[in-house]
Every structure is written in structure tokens, then in C-alpha cells.
Design a protein that fits this description.
With about 400 residues, the protein is α+β, with helices and mostly antiparallel strands. Helix 15 runs antiparallel to helix 17. The longest helix has about 35 residues.
Length: about 400
């Protein structure tokens, strides 16, 4: 990060939490004996805000006697609550995955459901709230049939018609019966207007590089390691603007990198980010991981993917690191400006900016459910006003 703009000050309690959840061996982690009552309050407050209390409990299990009793109790309660919830969630997930496998539908599992069993020491250490599945778009109807047999129903498509999601989006959410997890069905791994106009990610064969994984005895697919890194970068940087999901996603990324260890092909990752034009997003995301969690990213990798000095200064000015630590939302205008700065090529940023205000007619028709020959001038004007007011995301 730019030396002229130092990261925000972090209290000793928050520093201790970050050390213990980052994968740092306990004998090298921040000493716990010198923390004050205020430091422990910061520790617990941050752990709860970022959904890291269960992982902290697992990591600190053998040193609980060194913690204030109320801290140990808070961490223990958080862990056992997540463990109980995830046992039920995995039971339901296994049944869904088994039914999809019996229907010969290929499934690629993303994020928490996969990470809790493959990257974390216990399924109680990683909270989950839904089930993210990537499926072939041409099998959406078959998957809906499987989900409906369990009592799932579509939650609708928000303000965007289904046609828009099928052509330009990439996911639909299905509401569960009682005690079942919501299901997010994806048919594009990385989607939305930012990747459509600013990257070449659509040309990548993520399915072709996918690898087998086992979730509760059911064989599924997972992203190849480099693709998983790229997806996590996109998820942190573009979907959540670095702040609104807090540090849990950074811990996921940290664990992907640590699990791969020396086998991680950093040269291949740099080539991938360049090919899909996501080097700036990769730089800032990895730099924040190194800064907060001491993630073992080789300095040469950061030096290779870093943008110009001017771009770095602008990113430091726009990124609200206090919002990240406090896990609070920032203004949509600020997030949009940050996304523009993450675009590798100036001409792509200009194209994204132009299409934000003046989308093509096919997009406009799909986005607002217009008839093919319906009036579009009024809708264009309405879209322009909505964008200027930032009452909705494109």
C-alpha cells in the first residue's frame, strides 16, 4: 500500500484476533497475557462482527485457561452454535447434492460449504448461511425440479426480470423449507456489468479446469486453486467492495493460499490475472490480506501485479479501511469509484462508465422487462435518473 496513507490503527485486542485466525502457529501468535479488559472487549467485538469467534475458539482451545472466563465462554458459545447449525446444514446439503448426482447434474460447490470441510479444522469454525452451487445453465429446469422436491421455491429475481438474469446475470436464490439452507444457483462463476465490460473473464474455461472434491461423502466439483483465488478476489473486491462482508472472506483467501503452500503456482496466477484483466483487483486484495493476516504472498508477486503509483495513491484515497475493520457499508458512489479504479485498462474503464449511463438496447429491454418494440426513450431517461441518484445498481 502507499506509504503516504498508512492503514488505520488496530487495537492490541484486534491484532491478537487477527494473529490467531490467520493460520499463524500459536507459538508465534500475539501474546495474550498482556491484553487489558478493553483489549478483550475489542477482541470479542471484532470476532463477533466479522464472524470469526468460532474460529478463534478452535484456535485458542488449548489456551482457554489464559483467557478471561467471560471471553472463553463467549467464544465457546459462538463455536457450539455454529457447529450445531452446520451439522444440520450439511445433513440437508448432502441430501441435495445426492439428489443432483442421481439426476446426473454436474455441480460445482463454492465458498462456505466447500471451505468449511476443506480449509478449516472443523465445520464449527466457519459459519455458513447458504449453499452456493454452480450448474450448467441448460440444466436449470432440472435443478429447479430437484429443489422443489425438497420444498424449495424461487424467491423471485428482485427488481430484475428473469430474462435479465439469464442473459446478463448469473444467479437465482431459492428459499428453503424450515431448517434448510437457502440455495444460490449460479451458472456463471464471475458475472455482472463490471466483468462484462472491464475483463475478459468470459473466455475462461473454469469448468474445464475444475477438480473433484468430496462433501459429506458426495463427489462434487471444486474450482482449481488458481481459479478459486481469482473468484475470491472478485467476490471480495467487486461484489462486496472490500468492506461489507468484513474479514471472513479475507480469512478464506488466506486459508486457500496457506493450504496450497509451496505448490501454489504464483506465476500461473499472475498470468491468469493478466489474461482476464484483473491484476489491479488481485493486487489490492492480496495486499490487504498480507497487511491484515500476514498471508504468505511472495513480495515479487505483489510487485508484479501492482498498478502505477498514481493508481495506488487513488486506491488508497478511495478505499475505506476503517469501514473494513468496522464492517460497515460505504456509499454506493464510493464503491462505484473504487470499481472504476480496479479496471486494469483505461479504455475498459471508459467503456464501463459509458455503459453505466447508456446501456445497449438489448440490455435495457432485459433489465426493465420492455417489449422488443416498446418505447425506450422514456426508459433510457428513467435509467439515467436512477443511475445518477444511485437508487439501484446496474
Amino acid at each position: 500500500m502507499n506509504k503516504r496513507h498508512q492503514p488505520p490503527q488496530v487495537s492490541p485486542g484486534c491484532q491478537a484476533l487477527l494473529a490467531w485466525v490467520s493460520g499463524t502457529p500459536p507459538d508465534r501468535a500475539t501474546d495474550l497475557t498482556g491484553l487489558s479488559e478493553t483489549d478483550w472487549q475489542d477482541f470479542i467485538g471484532m470476532a463477533r462482527a466479522h464472524q470469526l469467534a468460532p474460529l478463534a475458539y478452535y484456535q485458542l482451545y488449548h489456551t482457554l485457561d489464559r483467557l478471561p472466563p467471560w471471553v472463553a465462554e463467549a467464544l465457546q458459545t459462538a463455536y457450539h452454535n455454529v457447529l450445531a447449525a452446520n451439522v444440520v446444514l450439511y445433513n440437508r446439503t448432502q441430501r441435495i447434492l445426492k439428489a443432483l448426482r442421481q439426476a446426473s447434474i454436474p455441480v460445482l460447490v463454492l465458498k462456505g460449504t466447500l471451505f468449511a470441510q476443506t480449509l478449516y479444522p472443523s465445520i464449527g469454525a466457519r459459519p455458513m448461511c447458504d449453499l452456493d452451487l454452480v450448474i450448467p445453465l441448460d440444466q436449470l429446469a432440472q435443478v429447479e425440479t430437484v429443489l422443489s422436491s425438497f420444498g424449495y421455491r424461487s424467491l423471485g429475481h428482485g427488481t430484475r426480470p428473469l430474462e435479465y438474469h439469464l442473459r446478463y446475470g448469473g444467479e437465482v436464490t431459492y428459499g428453503p423449507p424450515q431448517s434448510w439452507p437457502p440455495v444460490d444457483l449460479h451458472w456463471h462463476l464471475i458475472f455482472g456489468e463490471w466483468p462484462r465490460w472491464a475483463t475478459a473473464v468470459a473466455d475462461e474455461d473454469f469448468w474445464g479446469r475444475a477438480e473433484p472434491a468430496i462433501i459429506d461423502g458426495i463427489e462434487v466439483l471444486q474450482l482449481a486453486v488458481l481459479d478459486s483465488l481469482l473468484h475470491q478476489v472478485w467476490h471480495i473486491a467487486v461484489v462486496h467492495g472490500y468492506t461489507d462482508m468484513g474479514l471472513r472472506s479475507y480469512v478464506d483467501l488466506d486459508r486457500i493460499i496457506r493450504a496450497a503452500g509451496d505448490s501454489l503456482d504464483w506465476t500461473g496466477f499472475v498470468e491468469l490475472t493478466r489474461r482476464v484483466r484483473m491484476t489491479t483487483a488481485a493486487y489490492l486484495t492480496l495486499a490487504l490480506c498480507v497487511q491484515s493476516l500476514h498471508t504468505p504472498v511472495p513480495p515479487t508477486v505483489l510487485a508484479t501485479v501492482q498498478p502505477s503509483a498514481l493508481r495506488r495513491r487513488l486506491l488508497d484515497q478511495v478505499l475505506d479501511q476503517e469501514a473494513l475493520l468496522q464492517r460497515r457499508y460505504v456509499s454506493r458512489r464510493r464503491v462505484y469509484l473504487l470499481r472504476l479504479l480496479l479496471v486494469d485498462r483505461t479504455r475498459d474503464a471508459a467503456r464501463l462508465l459509458f455503459r453505466t449511463f447508456f446501456p445497449e438496447k438489448e440490455w435495457l429491454a432485459a433489465r426493465y422487462g420492455l417489449e422488443d418494440r416498446g418505447p425506450r426513450f422514456a426508459q433510457r431517461l428513467r435509467h439515467l435518473v436512477l443511475v445518477l441518484l444511485l437508487r439501484g445498481e446496474i
